[in-house]
Amino acid sequence: MFFVAGAKNTAGSGGGNERRSIYRKFREVDLLDKKKTVTALKPGEDRAILLGLGMILSSVMMYFVLGITILRSYADSVWTEEGVCVVLNSTVTADMNCSYNCGSDCWRVSKYPCLQVYVSVNNTGRVSRLSHNEETQDASSECFYVPRCQKDTAAMHTMIMNISERLKVNQQVPCYYDPSEQQETVLLTRLYDHSVVFHSLLWPSCILAGGALIIVMVKLTQYLSRLCEEIGKIKR
């Protein structure tokens, strides 16, 4: 009986040791897999964070460029109120000189007709001179439109006459004026209106939001991973 009991104890302890060794092996394999997963995820997370930071930096640079170009011109413009202008007179007064490039270090003089347009703003009786946009106003304080200078004066003359005929047909046109009345000139169009500013700020804002979202998602993934590890340790 003693020998039989001893044999049974030895067999039981051997089976228990074998089960513990198998458990250790599975445990080591599990830990190794987790280490491999963490090692594989870490470079990907770092690259994702760098991508997010790069997107945020790019959006900030785009905001800076827009701030010194479009937004500055938009803020400095005094033609902020939109109204309706009635065309009173549209006539060609004189020929204006301009210069065009004819090659390397070569400039020649050409001429284009100066179209002057006078309008009444919002039927108030206030008569103002109409200009195409801010660039035209800066280039010429007398003419409605300044075409691109070229050798063919007949083409420029035809262009100006077509504009004059269109203004005579469409006597009521939308325009922008200075509410403080410091500028007597009114504009037909603005270079940078509300829609241009909105669309110019839309893409940098999307890039900024995308970069911030990538960083937040990576940090959330890291937090959830640590939380799962802590829960697993508590259960064991």
UniProtKB/TrEMBL annotation:
One Pfam annotation reads KcnmB2_inactiv
Q: Where in the cell is it found?
A: Membrane
> Topologically, how does it sit relative to the membrane?
Multi-pass membrane protein
Q: Which GO terms describe its biological process?
A: detection of calcium ion
* Keyword set, alphabetical order: Glycoprotein, Ion channel, Ion transport, Membrane, Transmembrane, Transmembrane helix, Transport
* Residues annotated as transmembrane: 48-71, 196-218
The segment(s) forming the KCNMB2 ball/chain domain are: 15-33
Query: Which InterPro entries does the record match to this protein?
Result: K_chnl_Ca-activ_BK_bsu (IPR003930), KCNMB2_ball/chain_dom_sf (IPR037096), KCNMB2_ball_chain_dom (IPR015382)
Can you cite an annotated GO cellular component? voltage-gated potassium channel complex
UniProt entry tagged with the keyword Zinc-finger: no
State the organism of origin: Seriola lalandi dorsalis
What is the name of the protein in this document? Potassium large conductance calcium-activated channel, subfamily M, beta member 2a
Q: Which GO terms describe its molecular function?
A: calcium-activated potassium channel activity; potassium channel regulator activity
Q: Provide the primary localization.
A: membrane
